[in-house]
Amino acid sequence: MKTETDDFPERLLDGExxxxxxxxxxxxxxxxxxxxxxxxxxxxxxxxxxxGRHRARLIxxxxxxxxxxxxxxxxxxxxxxxxxxxxxxxxVPLASPAPSASPRATLPAAVPAPAPAAPFADAPHIQLGxxxxxxxxxxxxxxxxxxxxxxRDGSARAFATPTAxxxxxxxxxxxxxxxxxxxxxxxxxxxxxxxxxxTVLGTVFRVARTGDDVTLSVTEGxxxxxxxANTLAIITAGGFWSGAAGKEAEAESSPRRDLADRTTxxxxxxxRLVALRAPGREVxxxxxxxxxxxxxxxxPSAAGPCAARASAGDAAGAADCYSTAAAASGAxxxxxxxxxxxxxxxxxxxxxxxxAVATLQEAQRRFPAGVLSTEVSLSLAELxxxxxxxxxALDEAAAILxxxxxxxxxxxxxxxRGDVLRAGLGRxxxxxxxxxxxxxxxxxxxxxxxxxxxAACLEATGRRAEARAAFALYLTHPGPAHAAEARRHxxxxxxxxx
Amino acid sequence: xxxxxxxxxxxxxxxxxxxxxxWRELHQRYYAMVYGFLRRLGVRPPDTEDxxxxxxxxxxxxxATFQHRADLRTWLYKLxxxxxxxxxxxxxxxxxxxxxLRQQADEQGTPGPDWSESDAQKRVHAALDRMKxxxxxxxxxxxxxxxxxxEVAAATGLPHATVRxxxxxxxxxxxxxxxxxxxx
Lengths: 498, 184
Prior knowledge:
The complex is a heterodimer of chains A (498) and B (184).
Chain A: H1 18-28, H2 36-74, H3 79-85, E1 130-133, E2 142-149, E3 156-160, E4 165-169, E5 172-178, E6 189-193, E7 196-200, E8 204-210, E9 213-220, E10 222-227, E11 230-235, E12 240-244, E13 250-251, E14 271-276, H4 303-311, H5 315-328, H6 333-349, H7 353-366, H8 373-383, H9 390-403, H10 410-424, H11 428-441, H12 444-460, H13 464-475, H14 483-496
Parallel strand pairs in A: 4-6, 7-14
Antiparallel strand pairs in A: 1-2, 2-5, 3-4, 5-8, 6-7, 8-9, 9-12, 10-11, 10-14, 12-13
Helix pairs in contact in A: 2-3, 4-5, 5-6, 6-7, 7-8, 8-9, 9-10, 10-11, 10-12, 11-12, 12-13, 13-14
Chain B: H1 8-16, H2 20-40, H3 45-62, H4 72-100, H5 119-130, H6 133-144, H7 149-156, H8 160-181
Helix pairs in contact in B: 1-2, 2-3, 2-4, 3-4, 4-7, 5-8, 6-8, 7-8
């Protein structure tokens, strides 16, 4: 049976010639790995350091929050206090108009940005390589990594204090890896490049600046770029975006640009970049062993209380807090995020899928073209079958596939539709086509499940010869998850068929 | 009676449950693999241990959310590829800073011979070091780690056709580099 792997040539070391012989000799000698015991001790120490650092920041954040919160009562209008206090800003009524100032913990306009100088000449807090960046709230703290790539004409200066972290990029390029995505827009790690502010919530991307041109390329995750209140584009992994000071921002050609929802940028306000969760990633940001539950801000004023409740384990209170804040907000990004966060809490922490569905549908109704619209739709498609609403799940998945037919999650959606048709509605004939599409487009995990269930559906609908071929093909895949069952089906089909 | 090693799934489940001994077992099982892979990806010995620790820190931090979407080994390769890229970038930054400070070049940038390695290891490592990074990843995974084409695609996140194309070029490049070092 021909499979995709057959297209690959024989391994070199299985062949003839001096190169093959050299590789054989090389492969016989495993690289010498120094003592595993010492390595384990080092790993443990590092894990402990991370956890200890987290606890220390939590305590520090509480102290800073209490002190600055009290100070804010007396110095309510000081922008400097706001900068340093972060989440401990004086409360703003939920129903108030959108604050004119950016809620992000960044250098306010009144504080001039440090002038570019010789690289790292006077930046004592520079973090080269892995750098831990502490931010005001325990639940929102962020451990990031900024790797500075020096360019001939450029410089990048990093400033990290216990309450904020900024990299000022005069020219050159920055590669950013941010492991944790629990920071919200109030407590962010930022890259300032011209008029744009790149607020990192967790992804891998590069920001480069040449003169007035600022470019962004995303390696992992999905990134929403906004300028003022406008969403400029959503850039997916492999995507590219560029903008210039005082000019209209542009979404450049990208291999996965079909998700880039481009609108005209008319506001001269600083841009903002928010990294979103990528569906189907192997390393999702939530629920790390040493971290508190994920939180995000519903609005500038709601972020503190909601996040604090989530951190304290009060998931129900946090979800209600986000919902209430989102209801009180208008058409802000924060309201959309709040609804999404509330739905996540209902779904993951509270086990209330019906309520999660209702919340997501509200988000969909209020923000049909919102920054999180695809995430909301994907979550709905996954959740609806769990509450028995199969047809709606099918419709939701089909709608996403129509909008983004070539996206990475297309295979997952076909698999989902196949499962709903087969297990939910008992329509194996229709499911077979969906499984076929998923098997062609999916990664190994999706293809494995889709191939197996396609074969099972073929058998269930009486197409036994095709089923036999499909099971046989399935068993040629590397490490099939349902191998034993597939062999049993194949044996039964071979016995029954001439 | 010989003890039967737990399956990867069982081991991961115990790790997620917080069993420290299971962490240790997982580390013991995969440490040499990760170390060797990082080394073959061009991470030099002084940095390899650090990079290896970083990979396992990532593993233990994210293991609860792993959910067996892919084979654990594939995931380890994926984490190692990212970590190797970071290590190489850091080494480049260190070199740049040393150059700026007019100090001697980082010895990691111009490594001396490692007498503990055999001649075959030295020659293959030398060729791997000179290969393009994009080629080296698929070459090491396919030729030296023994992954199938699909597994390489899963580990690198590349389409199947791209893996095949890169492998084709990588093999040509490797053979050319080995040929250059053949005694005339």
